[in-house]
C-alpha cells in the first residue's frame, strides 16, 4: 500500500476517534498510536487468551493503550520486554520476580519501566513467546497492522499471532 494511502487512513482514524469521543489520554491522538476508551478491556481480553497463558516472555510496546497489558503480564508472572520510546534507549526487561507486586502498576508506565526494569541488549533477551503491539489501523480482512514496521513472523523465534 502506498505511503500516502496509509497516511490518509491514519488521519481518518485519528479524526474519527476524536469526533466520536473514544480517544483517551494522551491527547491529541494525531501522530501516535492512540490510546482509546476500552484499552483496559482489550488487555483483559488478551489476558484470557490461551496464547497469553502459555507465554513466559511477552514483548509489549510502550504505547499508552498497552500499559494495562504490561501490568497484567507482570501480575500473571510473565517477564515483559518493553522497547523504550522510539527505541532511543534500547530495550527494558521487567521481571515480576524482581519487582514488588505493589509496584507493578508503576512499573508498567514508561517512567516506572526505567525505574524497575533493567536495560537489555537484543542478543541477551530471553526468547519472546508473544508480541503485543498497537496500531492506528489494521486490515479488516487479515488483521495485519497498518504501520511503518512489519514484524517478521516467519522467523525462527516467532510464534502464533493473537
From TrEMBL:
Pfam families, from UniProt? 5-FTHF_cyc-lig (PF01812)
Question: Key word Ligase present in the record?
Answer: yes
- Keyword tags: Ligase
A molecular-function term among this protein's GO annotations: ligase activity
Report whether Ligase shows up as a keyword of the record. yes
Annotated GO CC locations: cytoplasm
What's the protein here called?
5-formyltetrahydrofolate cyclo-ligase
Q: Which organism is it from?
A: Pyrobaculum ferrireducens
